[in-house]
Amino acid sequence: MNSLIDIMQLTTEEIDSLIDTANDIIAKPEKYAQACRGKKLATLFFEPSTRTRLSFEAAMYELGGNVLGFSEAQSSSASKGESVSDTARTVSCYADIIAMRHPKEGAPLVASMRATVPVINAGDGGHNHPTQTLADLLTIQREKGRLSGMTVGLCGDLKFGRTVHSLIAAMSRYQDVRFVLISPEELTVPDYVKTEILEPKGIDYQEVRDLEAALPELDILYMTRVQRERFFNEADYVRLKDTYILTPDKLDGAKQDLCIMHPLPRVNEISVAVDDDPRACYFKQVLNGKYIRMSLILKLLEVHVS
Ligand code: CP
Fold first, then answer.
1. Comparing C-alpha atoms, which of 141, 150, 236, 221 is closest to residue 181?
2. Buried b (16+ CB within 10 A) or exposed e, 95-115
3. Does the C-beta of 131 come closer than 6 Å to ligand 1?
4. Which of 135, 164, 248, 252 could form a disulfide with 289 if both were Cys (CB 3.0 to 4.6 A apart)?
5. Contact 7, 134 (CB under 8 A)
């Protein structure tokens, strides 16, 4: 594998190895401080980002490498009509590895077919966000000590939330994981998630509307933002955006070792009053995102640190 477009390209053994390396980076950061000296990462972001772009950049700096790129399509020659393929081929002349976010599903895949360096999908439309999933898996492993044997609740916009689709795909390969899919009727997971991932593997899942009723059985609660940018109709967004708001009182019936996650950014889905609850893990997720991206960069650049 020399590009990462979809989390399913990685075997569970490869995911476990990326997590092991990330944990080693967390324990011994000095060991990795010069690992990518002389290497360059290009961040090509055709869509807004705070965490993904900056964590990729911080990751490369902390590995001793350098970073170049752009943070909006308007400041690149895409605004003059240049194709994703030509952009990828061009940037391959300047950088050793590319992280690309694009509003069009499949754009990073197209880029990887023309680039001569590894391409990492940093989010493509409502489709996939594999490095967020790696950050999520590292967080779950660090918080729960395992990736198997748990009930995972996913709540909010399960239709357009690309992080949800990637996380379900990844976790469905671990033993004894069941899913509670909590969403309004209009924002349920796409059919392919059920017919191509959950049902063929015989994975236990329920689709429900009521967050509070579902909470007591959950080991993980993964909240998501209603994805305004993917709606065709503003009125539908306004009607659905505040369907679920997690507040401290709603957590009364939840497990004491519940892990509350959110890929962020949040809008109203989690009250800031929840941030002080020891079960709130979403800012740990942010930090873990940097470490797992360091681990991934090392893997794709085939840099071995001993
Ligand atoms: N989680 C995530 O992808 O955040 P950004 O959109 O800020 O990168």
1. 221
2. bbbbbbbbeeeebbbbbbebb
3. no
4. 135
5. yes
- Compute CA distances 20 → 138, 185, 301, whole Å: 9, 39, 17
Instruction: Confirm if 136 and 261 have CB atoms less than 8 A apart.
Output: yes
Predicted TM-score (pTM) of the model is 0.95
Nearest C-alpha to atom 6 of ligand 1 is from which residue?
A: 49
| CA 86, chain centre distance (Å) | 26
H/E element holding 67? strand 66-70
Q: What distance in angstroms lies between residue 29's CA and the mean position of ligand 1's atoms?
A: 24
Question: What does the alpha-carbon distance between residue 96 and residue 81 come to, in Å, rounded to a whole number?
Answer: 24
Q: Atom 1 of ligand 1 has which residue's CA nearest to it?
A: 263
Residue type, 13: E
| Confidence at residue 230, expressed as pLDDT on a 0 to 100 scale | 66
The Cα 138–Cα 284 span in angstroms is 10
Separation CA 99–CA 299 (nearest Å): 14
What tens digit of pLDDT does each residue of 153-197 get? 999 999 988 899 999 999 999 999 999 999 999 899 999 999 999
